[in-house]
Amino acid sequence: MIQLKSTREIDLMAEGGRILGATVAMLRREVKAGMSTMDLDALAESFIRSHSGATPAFKGLYGFPGTLCTSINHEIVHGIPSKKRVLKDGDIISIDVGVGYEGYFTDSATTVPVGDVDEETRRLLAVTERSLEAAIAVAVPGNHLGDIGAAVQQVVEEAGFSVVRDLVGHGIGVEFHEEPQVPNYGKPKRGLKLVPGLTLAIEPMVNIGGPTTRTMPDKWTIVTVDGSRSAHFEHTVAITETGHRVLTAA
Ligand code: MG
Ligand code: MG
Fold first, then answer.
1. Mind listing the domains of the chain with CATH numbers?
2. What's the CA-to-centroid distance between 87 and ligand 2, angstroms?
3. How many angstroms is it from 172 CA to the middle of ligand 2?
4. How far apart are the two ends of the chain, measured CA to CA in Å?
5. What is the pTM of this model?
6. Average predicted confidence (pLDDT) for the chain
7. How far apart are CA 13 and CA 28, in angstroms?
């Protein structure tokens, strides 16, 4: 069932989203070679909890142990923070994080270069971020879910990269994962019609190589089968009467 949100609920989500946006901005500044993914997780947890009423939404969600999902290089999503995973110059790290606030959830992700990364990797990050912007631009009332997926797909495939299909964005708000699913591929004017009050986590996951994924033996980390690098950018967006609000902007 799709749960449309009132303006009051969207305002509450925006308050939590502001804390989340600040968390992501802080983490982007802090990432550097020599840090472990657990160091980042600890920074994020204390930052989120320093805001009254805010909690790390991932902790305990489906049994996940961390505040962050930290996924390095060919890892797409759901990497578990660890003291043993230390960032090196030239790596990329995808950081996915959620916040609970006053009974509502928001969700955001970013991929950060560690020191100097190669040209193709820089292009991957730029294209993935641009595909999210293109998707948000068409997330307006009267358009359809297919417009969002098609916008991502067009930007990504024109650049010669591939869209991950095994994982999708989602509705969000009262529950962390709500209906509908928000695929990063599709056809314009197809699928659910977007209406005011719909709150969506839009989250393109993009691979340099092929789209095929595999789950690691830890049962969490999802990687590219071909070992190519992957990037992930995400915002929580509310459809409004006049367009949309990005609730997790920094
Ligand atoms: Mg997320
Ligand atoms: Mg999400």
1. 7-246 (3.90.230.10)
2. 24
3. 8
4. 30
5. 0.98
6. 98
7. 22
